[in-house]
Amino acid sequence: MSAVTAGNGSRGGVVKVESREVTRAEVEEFLYREAQLLDEWRLDEWFTLFEPDGRLEVPTTDWAGWDATTAGYFVADDYELIRARVKRLKSRKAHAENPHSRTHRMVSNVILLEAGAETVWITANFVIHRYRDGGAYTYVGRYEHVLKVEPDGLRFRVRRAVPVMESMDPGARLSFIL
Amino acid sequence: MAQQTPVRPLGAPGDGAMIDEDWEALRFRVHRSAYREPGVFAEEIARIWGHTWLYLGHETEIPKAGDFKTRTLGGRPLIFCRDADGEVRVFFNSCTHRGTVLCRHSEGNTKFFQCFYHAWAFSNSGELAALPGDDAYPDDPAFRASMALRQVPRLQIHEGFVFIAFDPDVPDLLTHLGPAAHYMSLTAKIGERGMTTLPGVQLYSVKGNWKLAVENAMDGYHFAPTHNTFVGYLRETGFAVTDDDQYAYDLGGGHGLLVLTGHNGRIGMVWEPRFGEEEKERTAVKRRELEARLGPELAAEVADASRILFVFPNLLLFDLEALTIRQLEPVAADRTDVRAWQFVEVGEPESVRALRIKTMVSFVGPGGLATPDDIEAYEAVQRGIVATADAADPAHDWSDMSRGMANEKQGNQGRSIDEGAMRSFWRQWAHVVGASTSVAGAPPAGAPASGPAAAEAGE
Predict the structure, then answer these.
(1) Nearest one of B134, B64, B147, B72 to B103, comparing CA atoms
(2) Residue A85: which of B207, B357, B369 has the nearest Cβ?
(3) Total domain count, chain B
(4) B133 in the same domain as B191
């Protein structure tokens, strides 16, 4: 799965996953709340947005759709590694984030691509501004998420942030959540 | 408070030396202008990058005829390609007509490179293939021949690792590599069916001098404090990390090696609990395969210890949990582009490949649990060392790398948690760049061990 194209599952920003309707507004709300948790470094709460077995992925900037099990990535975390990452980032010994970066996320262009048996595939664009050590960095890309649809809300099955920059340059330390 | 009396007055050595070595005081200092000054950087590009073998890439990045990658080395744009006959070629990425960058894609497959500016076209073996309006040029085959793509003066390949030089008079590649060639060969022997680079190249840039990246790789001293959170993660997954029995080797020519026994597990070689039971079984099978193919001694050398190899000036091979090839490209005194490839066994099972990638990127690379702290460290050095530039007391503008010098003076094998590997790098650097070195006292007699085998032979 390379560059995603608008699927035919979404009509007017609504898809049906079994008998449950998922609207674009619900997905937007989920993404906005996630952005807020990350900008406020509330990582324990952020971790609850994943279903058990959820994955966190950041492909490299030369990505052409390769799976995280067959090509180099920046981040290819299974659930236990996401947990380890959160624990690390909360430690004052995570030197790359002590003090924390100031981040400011903008999420837009949310599209519901396709409904699966119990999931919805979505894409969105992001711009993340990051400030640290007197430097200002901008990260631009798109999200390609697989969200598990649950009665009470949504959870990440795959949370994938695809950078569109030619290189992770500068501000290479991906020690915050992209 | 008692004032400590230095053996020789501190301050800038009289001749403006960049390296200050004192075997009586057991002191080794590097002047911080070496990381800061654009003039030093220009000398490095001219004297090192202009006249030394440079690591360009691995043959497996361009497996098929017509495959190409574009890449910049020492600031010069290059085309790294495999021509129609399957030969590896490296051209300056610059049209011979007016100098336009000829190929503006980062990778692909092509028979011809055509300049968009005036439509001159070149075959992937470099001949001028099309010259629009050629009736206005001399009717002379020599003219066309003179307009062939410019190849880099030297190109040699060791175990698939492609090196080039911009100086035709460099010694043979194997002479340049010396004992480092053997350690590159060890990584190439891991796979029964060979090794290959994977797509998914980590391209990133750090705001630090390239030598800080070399120091960081050759510096076992920083591991425990800098990677506290990663060491904690390893402990939680059931693996104790030790820095015992870990050594540093000066391979000559600026090349360095850390041999890290008991550092971490290695996929297929040294099992640790986080790799899972399936991998435990496979590790035993893999060891038998290595022994059958390479013999027990070589198999042990390949499998038993992690290694970090630095090949002067721009290649690092991290043979750790898994293998990573890292290339350094200096951009400015305070900026370095880094490129990193996963280097894997051809034909390994899917589950192993997945484990390898997960394990490696969880540690190494900008998104890992460890590398961001390394980058933080050397970016912090770059920011910090301006503090003492032109300081009131010139003795303040030096970085200290004397750890383990007493041990070195006694002729003992250098430990990875000391700074001996960094000292040997700096000595070679000063030699190649032509920077002045001030040496006081008597350095230890006898050449340093050039590798674990040499060390054993010397005992």
Answers:
(1) B72
(2) B369
(3) 2
(4) no
Structural domain boundaries, residue B202: 178-440
Find, in chain B, the residue whose alpha carbon is nearest to that of A74: B367
B330 Cα to chain A: minimum distance (Å) = 14
User: Can you give the pLDDT at residue B1?
Assistant: 42
Residue B451 lies in a domain: no
Quote the CA–CA distance of B60 and A80 in Å, as a whole number.
Answer: 33
Residues 6+ apart with CB under 8 A from A126: A105, A106, A107, A108, A139, A140, A141, A142, A143, A161
Over 90: is that where the pLDDT of A133 sits?
no
Residue whose token pair is 């790294």: B80
Residue B219: per-residue pLDDT: 81
Looking at the domain assignment, is residue B35 inside a domain?
Answer: no
pLDDT of residue B221: 81
Mean pLDDT across B7-29? 75
Distances (CA, A) of B436 to B21, B30, B427, B428: 11, 11, 10, 11
What are the tens digits of pLDDT across the range B174-231? 999 999 999 999 999 999 999 999 999 999 999 999 999 999 988 878 877 887 887 7
ipTM of the complex: 0.91
Picking from B175, B157, B155, the residue whose alpha carbon sits closest to that of residue B165 is B155
B368 and B246 housed in the same domain:
yes
Question: A62 vs B201: CB contact, 8 Å cut-off?
Answer: yes
